[in-house]
Amino acid sequence: MRWVRWLAVLPFLGMLGGPFFLNRVTPLVLGLPLLLAWLVFCVLMTSVIMGVIYLCDPENRTDGTGREAGE
């Protein structure tokens, strides 16, 4: 489980390192400058990754009765 939590580092690294490589106006992506499109993509990927981490966390599993498995 611990290795899945390391996925949360990816959007941070994308937002931190993206401006060094993508600081251009062209090409436009969906009408947005490339850097802004990259940052929007990183924000969306943050939500996806947090969802994956949530689903992989064994503490969030239930036993079918609505109670947590450990109860």
UniProtKB/TrEMBL annotation:
Under Pfam families, the record lists: DUF3311
- What are the UniProt keywords, alphabetically? Membrane, Transmembrane, Transmembrane helix
Transmembrane portions of the chain: 34-56
Database matches in InterPro entries = DUF3311
Name of the molecule in the record: Permease
Q: Which organism does this record belong to?
A: Methylobacterium durans
